[in-house]
Amino acid sequence: MTPATDSSLFPQVPDSPDAVLDGLDPEQREVATALNGPVCVLAGAGTGKTRAITHRIAYGVRAGILQPASVLAVTFTARAAGEMRGRLRQLGAGGVQARTFHSAALRQLQFFWPKAVGGEVPRLLERKIQLVAEAAARCRIRLDRNELRDVTGEIEWSKVTQTVPADYPAAVVKAGRDAPRDPAEIGQIYGTYEQLKRDRGTIDFEDVLLLTVGVLQDRHDIAEQVRSQYQHFVVDEYQDVSPLQQRLLDLWLGDRDSLCVVGDASQTIYSFTGATPDHLLNFRTRHPNATVVKLVRDYRSTPQVVHLANALLSQAKGRAAEHRLELVSQREAGPEPAYVEYADEPAEAEGTARRIRDLIASGVPAGEIAVLFRINAQSEVYEQALADVGVPYQLRGAERFFERPEVREAGIKLRGAARFGSNDALLDDAVDLPSEVRAVLSDMGWTGEPPAGSGAVRDRWESLAALVRLAEDFARARPSATLADLVAELDERANVQHAPTVEGVTLASLHAAKGLEWDAVFLVGLTEGMMPITYAKSDEQIEEERRLLYVGVTRARLHLGLSWSLARSPGGRASRRPSRFLSGLRPGSGASAGRRVPGAAVGGVERGAEAAGARRRKPRGPARCRVCNKTLTDAGEMKLMRCEDCPSDLDEALYERLRDWRADQAGRLSQPAYCVFTDKTLMAIAEAVPGTEAELAGISGVGRRKLDRFGTDVLALCAGEELAGASEDDSEDGAENSSEK
Predict the structure, then answer these.
(1) Most buried of the four, 412, 479, 567, 611, by CB within 10 Å?
(2) Nearest partner of 252 among 277, 224, 280, judged by Cα
(3) 68 and 93 in contact (C-beta within 8 Å)?
(4) How many angstroms separate the CA atoms of 732 and 313, rounded?
C-alpha cells in the first residue's frame, strides 16, 4: 500500500450503490452484500474489516434495503466510531449511528430515564478513582497510587462481568484472577464505593450499561420502542465484548437476527477488562444459520511481516488458536524483520533511535514510525534517546486532536478569518488557501520550523503543523476551495473525530497500538518477564501475551524491528533472556517456523445451515434490474424490477384490462384504486404476464392477502380469459392498506 493521495484524503461519493462495491475483493464483497443476519466476519489483521463493514452498511443504505436511522453500528473506542462515521459519510451513508457501547447506552438512558424512573439521570462520574480512594479510607484500608489504580480496575472488571461486591472474592478464584489486594478487602471497598455513589446520586460508566440493561429488561414497552428504532446491528471488534455488553446487545436485538459481528480471536488482548472471545467463537452455535466470511488477504504488511505473524501464531495453544486465520500478504516483498540484541536498556533505546533517524533520512516520514513496548514505564528511556538525536515524537494517549486547546483556538481564528478576511491585514500577502492558514496560525506563534526539544511547546507546534498540512492536502484535492470550505471540513471532521496525523514518531504501549498501523514498527524490550509479563502465570495469560505480541507485529507495513537487552543498566549483569515467543523465529534459536500454519482457517464464505440444506427464510437481497442488472433504489423501479429508462415489454392491452378491472374492484370496495394495486404494480404484472400463483406472488406489491383476494382474477386476465362476474367478497376486510402498495 502507498501513502494516502489527495484523492483518497477527499474521495468522491460513489454515484450508485454498485459503485460502493468497486474495489472490494471477493470476500469483502460477500460481506458487503450479505445484508441479512446473522453474519459473522472473521477478519485477520490488515484485511480491511472496517472497509468491508462500512461498505456493507453504505451499500445497504444506498440500495434502499437499510434505512440509515434504523442501523446501529457499535465499536469500542470513540476514535474507531469516528472513523466509521467519517467513512460512511464519504460513501454517501450519512445518518447511520456509529457509537461506542457506552455512548449508545447513555443516549438511550438519558432519553428513557424520565419515563422509566422519573426525574433526571444521575450525574455521571467522570473519574471514579477519587471515589474509590474515599471508599478505601472509609474501610480503613490504605492504598498507594498503584494499588488504587489496580483496585479501581478490579471494580470495573466486576461490573462488566456482572459480579456484585459480595460475590467478588469467589469470582476472582473462579476466574483465576490475581487480585492486587486481599479479595475480601477489595469486595469491601467495592461495596462502599457503590454506597457512596448512591448517597451522592452519581453513576459511573459501567452503571450506564447496567442501568440501560435494567430498563430494557424491566420495561418491555421501552425495549420495543428501541427495537422499532434500531432494526439492524453491526458490532466491530466483537472478540472484545464483555458479558455485560453482550447482554445489552441481546436486549437490543430481541428475537431478531439482523446482526453482523466482526472480530479476530487472535487479537483478544483485553481479557483483564472482562473482554472475552467466547461470544465470537460461539456465534455459529448461537446462530446455526449464520453466514461466516473469513478475511485473510492482508493488504497492510509485506510477505516477510506476515510470515512472522503466521509463524508466531503457529506456536499458540488454546481455543482462540484453534480458530486462528492464516494471513496471505497482498503486497510486494520487503525487508526481513530485524532482530537485534543489546547489552543494556539505554543501548537498546539509543540503537533504536539511531535506526529511526536513518529511516527518516531515507524518506520514511516520522509519523509513519512507531516504538511499541509492553508497559508505559518503558517510554522514558526512548523519549530521551529520540530527543538526543533530534527526532520528534508523540506519546499515544494524549487528548483527542480537536479537543486540544490550541486546535480549538486555531478553529476560532480560522473561522473569523473566513468571515472577515478581506479586512484582515494578516491575509494581505496570502496567495492561496495554505498560505492563508499559515498566516492565521502565525498569529498564534506558529513558524515554519519546529521549536527545539520536546514538551508542551513542541506538542502545540505539532498540532498547528498538522492543521497546515491538512490545508495543503485540502487545497490539492480541491483547488478552488476557500477558507470557509476548509473551516466547514474541519467542523465536519471534528464531529466525527477524524483527526489529521500529527507528525512525529509514536511511542505507545502494545495495548494502545491496537487498531493502528505504521510503515515501520520497533518492538522493544522483548525479554522474559516483560514479554510475557512477569505476572502472566496461567496458560491462558501466557497465550494472551503471545497475542499481544502478534498485534504488535501486525502493526507494521514494511519495516519491523524486534529487540531486547541483556541487562537493565550499563555494566549490569547480563541475566536477561529473549522472549520465549521468539524461539524458533529469530536466527540461531532453533528450527525456523516456515511451514504453513496447521489447522489455520483460510479465506472464504460458509453459509451455515443453508449450505447443509436446512430450511430458512429467503434473505432479502438487493433488487436488480432484470434488463441491465443495475442495483435498483427507487421504489417504483423496484416494483417494475427494471430501471425507468430500460426497455419495457409491457403488454398494453393487458395493462388496460387490469386498469378497468381495478376500477371496478375499487368502486365495489369504496376504496381508492391504488389500495387494490398501484399503477406500478399493474405495469409490473403486465410486463411479467404471470401464469402461475407463484409467479404472481413474486411481483413486488402482491402480498399474501392480495394474492388470496385478487389472484384468481388477475391470473385469468393474464391468460386472456373473460371474468364471469364481480367478486362476491366485497364487504370482508376491504383492500390491503397502503403499506402493501
Answers:
(1) 567
(2) 224
(3) yes
(4) 67
